[in-house]
Amino acid sequence: MACAGRSMILRGALAIVDLLVGGSVEAAPIAAPPASPILGTFYRIAAAGASGVFAGHEGSLAGWSDAGWRFVAPVEGMRLTERGSGVEFAFRDGAWTSGSIRGSEVVIGGAKLVGDRLPPIAGPVGGSAIDTEVRTAVGQILSALRTHGLIAS
Where are the domains of the chain? Predict the structure, then answer.
């Protein structure tokens, strides 16, 4: 019996390792465990209102193993992917967030495309020959750069 107990503990530990290394969950957060979980599946538990064996594990990750449910509390910086949507999530400031990427630059094909934000650029004014079409176009370009945060307002 002692050997069987150790085997179950080991399988449960391996399920947790699988979750942490694989980094993917089945769907959006759920409050209640699925009725018929599939071996090796992982879920994000809702931040509030968890029920059944999920109660008390709000905001955690749950994995179904042959040794039962295994829970992992997220830690700052943890990342995972939601299988159905392909959306990536990061655990920041005590909550799961999606839709933002943090970095200092974007490099594609060895060429830096986006880096630090540049200082403000003034819109066109004055001059001896005023071309309203050019001013409008330049103003729209500057507005787009400001909207996307590439230059300061």
Answer: 2-98, 106-147
